[in-house]
Write a structure and sequence with these properties.
- With 338 residues, the protein is of the alpha/beta class.
- The strands form 2 sheets. The protein has a 6-stranded parallel β-sheet with strand order 3-2-1-7-8-9, with helices on both faces. The chain has a 3-stranded antiparallel β-sheet with strand order 5-4-6.
């Protein structure tokens, strides 16, 4: 459902321009997304007319009941039959919304991508700031020994998948109804929103808790809603756009991605330079040491030669003295004889 304002000529373009301006002014943006972010990748959402909850489950149970903790424990075979058919889309690929958010992250503005989806598409697109509130179908683990398994293992197994090491049941690392979210993920999401100067909420009807309440932690009123259907926050948000989230984000977020600074090269060069300086310094030190050593030897040799000269001179003087005395005595004796 679109708002009446969206129908006016030029209204959508003005809203896109307003979103561009909000992004330009912001330094710490947080994105909160739901199932609507992945519909353009061929993954159905839950609550729309064609959503999973309005589809035939193929079983004698309602879809909303099947993806609950109590159903998983009571009817594991039926759970996995539905899970493989309706919740796993290994061939799905990131769409414009995912790629636009990655651009925003690389521009240094998007600090956290909080998702309620379990499809791993944000990470496939290149996001490094993703907080997965409801887990991922790509992660699976044994309930007994905690051995981990891939999505491929689940899809290729028959019936209830069992651990190849201990035989325990392997379950997906996703949060089912009646289960609690990981406290660490909630804490990280809330901390990010508290720091944000712009919160963009997209592809979610804001009916799933606790994500539906996250906007209250924003310290300002700078909230943007991008969703095809209405949400309870539409009238409180600074900007509301009822349109395709992929199209809106792709238009609003600049295609420019700043080049990474060649930090590694400069470090390498710096390292080489330092290394060269060190070697040069080492050589200089060696030369100085060798020079000092040579000078020391020369000095020692000079001292030795000086001592030797002095010794030789003293010896000559003593000899001359002895000769003089001897000559004097001889002369004295001659005089006496005369």
């Amino acid at each position: 459902m679109e708002t009446r304002l969206d129908r006016y000529e030029g209204a959508r373009e003005r809203k896109i321009e307003q979103l561009r301006q909000l992004i330009k002014e912001s330094k710490y943006i947080v994105f909160l997304g739901g199932a609507g972010v992945s519909t353009e990748s061929g993954i159905p959402d839950f609550r729309s007319g064609e959503g999973i909850f309005n589809q035939e489950s193929g079983l004698s149970y309602r879809p909303v009941d099947i993806i609950s903790h109590s159903f998983f424990e009571a009817h594991p075979e039926e759970f996995y039959d539905f899970y493989r058919r309706k919740l796993c889309y290994p061939k799905a690929r990131p769409n414009k919304a995912h790629r636009a958010l990655v651009r925003l992250e690389k521009q240094g503005k998007l600090k956290a991508t909080i998702t309620q989806n379990i499809d791993n598409l944000h990470q496939m697109a290149g996001s490094t700031t993703t907080i997965e509130l409801h887990g991922s179908v790509f992660r699976n683990y044994c309930l007994d020994c905690k051995e981990t398994y891939t999505l491929d293992f689940i899809l290729k197994s028959k019936g209830v998948p069992h651990c190849t090491k201990c035989g325990g049941i392997v379950r997906p690392d996703v949060v089912l109804y009646e289960e609690h979210l990981e406290h660490e993920n909630i804490d990280n999401a809330v901390k990010s929103i508290k720091k944000a100067d712009l919160l963009i909420i997209g592809g979610t009807s804001l009916t799933v808790y606790p994500a539906a309440t996250f906007a209250q932690f924003l310290k300002s009123d700078r909230v943007v809603i991008i969703n095809k259907s209405s949400t309870y926050l539409d009238l409180q948000a600074m900007l509301t756009i009822h349109d395709s989230i992929g199209a809106v984000l792709d238009e609003a977020i600049s295609k420019y991605i700043p080049r990474k600074k060649p930090a590694a090269k400069s470090t390498k060069t710096s390292s080489k330079s330092v290394s060269a300086k060190t070697r040069s310094s080492s050589k200089a030190t060696s030369k100085t040491a060798a020079s000092k050593k040579s000078a020391s030897k020369t000095k020692a040799a000079s001292k030795s030669a000086s001592k030797s000269t002095k010794s030789s001179t003293a010896a000559k003087a003593a000899k001359a003295k002895t000769t003089s005395k001897s000559s004097s005595r001889s002369s004295s004796k001659t005089k006496k004889k005369d």
